[in-house]
Specification:
This protein is α+β, with helices and mostly antiparallel strands and about 110 residues long. It is built from 2 helices and 3 strands; from the N terminus they run ααβββ. The protein has helices at about 20-30, 40-50; strands spanning about 55-60, 85-95, 95-105.
């Protein structure tokens, strides 16, 4: 019988505080090597802007909602040279949604 011990940490980030390099270094020292980010446009945009991610999971739903807040609404790139290129690893259908798994390209 194999037993796996999981350690779960929960962090609350103050609104508009962002993700600091100090916080990422602290998590590394705590041996937290994998991070699941659940948040809004500001939180996601901070990780993308700082290139603080190694893999991106994005679920797409077959629904047209019209106007609203984009998941990257707070991501401000000055020009095309600042874009964040991704390498698509996998796309698969999960029930009615599509899961896109991508890695940042160098």
């Amino acid at each position: 019988q194999v037993t796996t011990q999981l350690r779960v940490e929960q962090f609350l980030i103050e609104p508009n505080a962002g993700i600091s390099d100090d916080m990422l270094r602290w998590m590394y020292k705590q041996q937290i090597y994998s991070l699941y980010v659940e948040g809004g446009t500001f939180t996601f945009s901070q990780f993308l802007q700082n290139h603080s991610f190694q893999k991106l999971y994005q679920f797409m739903s077959p629904h047209i909602l019209g106007e609203g807040i984009s998941w990257t609404d707070s991501l401000h790139l000055e020009n095309m040279q600042r874009r964040i290129p991704l390498e698509i690893h996998k796309m698969r259908r999960t029930d009615r949604d599509i899961l896109l798994i991508a890695y940042p390209r160098p």
